[in-house]
Amino acid sequence: MTKKKSIILFLNSSPYNYENTYTTLKIAEAALDNGFETRLVASTDGVYGFLKGQVGKGLPNAAEGFESLIKKGLKVSL
């Protein structure tokens, strides 16, 4: 039996101050697209990326991005 590969990401920075949230979205998306079991732990300011209605200047909407990835199988712990 082949064990499925997995990755756990940790996000603790606010969604629109740095590109950390965007980078986390892209890594999670690539992992899911390549068949990895993908988990994300959001802590401290990282949880704000899941609030609907926030829009950052020049960066994709974090809440919409995470919602899309959750539909693809991303598991999230806040």
Structure, described:
- The chain is of the alpha/beta class and 78 residues long.
- Helices cover 32% and strands 19% of the residues.
- It has helices at residues 20-33, 62-72; strands at residues 6-11, 37-42, 75-77.
- The chain has a three-stranded parallel β-sheet with strand order 1-2-3, covered by helices on one side.
- Helix 1 (20-33) packs parallel to helix 2 (62-72).
- The longest helix has 14 residues, at 20-33.
- The chain starts with 5 loop residues before the first strand and ends with a strand.
- The model has no long low-confidence stretch (mean pLDDT 93).
Secondary-structure map with pairings?
Elements: E1 6-11, H1 20-33, E2 37-42, H2 62-72, E3 75-77
Parallel strand pairs: 1-2, 2-3
Helix pairs in contact: 1-2
- Beta-strand segment tally: 3
As residue ranges, the low-confidence spans are: none
The SSE string, one letter per element, is: EHEHE
Structural class, from helix and strand content?
Answer: alpha/beta
Distance between the termini: 32 Å
Helix segment tally: 2
* Rg, Å, rounded: 12 Å
Mean pLDDT: 93
What is the beta-strand fraction?
A: 15-25%
Q: Outline the biggest β-sheet.
A: 3 strands, parallel
Helix content: 25-40%
Shape: elongated
Strand order of the largest sheet: 1-2-3
